[in-house]
Design goal:
This protein is an alpha/beta fold. Helix content is 45%, strand content 15%. It has one domain: Aldolase class I (TIM Barrel). The structure holds 2-phosphoglycolic acid (PGA).
Length: 249
């Protein structure tokens, strides 16, 4: 089965709402659609404005995190119900910056993943090793544990429509990208983890992105690999021309 490639921007904590709308207008002016799926994952306060600004285009909108409960005494948190109310399509779950700075664990990632599916917000779940783990040769074990933890108890139908982003932490925002072969090797490995947990059909349909210093200059090398079904793009997704070049790799 042919998997549609999926390129998602991750804006992190950048852009005001005015800047986000300006991006959407500029991007829509230079990008008229294409064969690949495209999304922009923005800060919460920009999401409603972006849904409006991208209305009538094929560009989807994602959040970068959410709580797993529908509501409750969780000051400062945003629930899946609040995201679906404004039509958010995707949610990034378990980004390494959330694991590092906001105490995200494999267990909370798993709860959020299930909540996202329960509410019809499509999750992009992030996994990836830090540099010491790669240098020690533990990167496959680390990514296997994160993937199994994220997917624990997830029904096969949900696993099949999942998006997993492999983001080696040493390649995020560093300009030090994984080579196409390193990225392909790990994405193929993750597909094997899904195959072992479920079956061939789930492994065939799960989409696995690479993320970490994806730029116009390296997009083609990465995005043409067999097991790499897209990219999660940080810095380069902030600039309409750069993001256009990547989604049109
Ligand atoms: P980067 O970030 O493209 O700026 O390296 C990727 C990410 O954190 O998703």
């Amino acid at each position: 089965m042919a998997r549609q490639k999926f390129i998602a921007g991750n804006w992190k904590m950048y852009k005001t709402t005015a800047e986000a709308v300006a991006f959407a207008q500029a991007f829509s002016g230079i990008y008229g659609g294409g064969p690949h799926e495209v999304a922009v994952c923005a800060p919460y306060t920009q999401l409603a404005a972006l849904k409006d600004a991208f209305a009538g285009t094929s560009v989807k909108v994602g959040a970068q995190n959410m709580h797993f409960e529908n509501e409750g005494a969780y000051t400062g948190e945003i629930s899946p119900v609040m995201l679906t109310e404004i039509g958010v399509d995707y949610v990034v779950i378990g980004h390494s910056e959330r694991r590092q700075y906001f105490a995200e664990t494999d267990e909370t990632v798993n709860k959020k993943l299930k909540a996202a599916f329960a509410h019809g917000v499509a999750p992009i779940v992030c996994v990836g090793e830090v540099l010491e783990q790669r240098d020690a040769g533990n990167h496959f074990d680390v990514v296997k544990t994160q993937t199994e933890g994220a997917l624990y108890g997830l029904p096969p139908a949900d696993a099949a429509r999942l998006v997993i982003a492999y983001e080696p932490v040493w390649a995020i925002g560093t300009g030090r990208t994984a080579t196409g072969d390193q990225a392909e090797e790990m994405c193929a490995f993750i597909r094997g983890v899904v195959r072992a947990l479920y079956d061939e059909a789930a492994a065939d349909s799960v989409r696995i992105q690479y993320g970490g210093s994806v730029k116009p200059a390296n997009a083609t090398e990465i995005l043409t690999k067999d097991n790499i079904d897209g990219a999660l793009v940080g810095g380069a997704s902030l600039v309409p021309e750069d993001f256009k070049a990547i989604v049109e790799f």
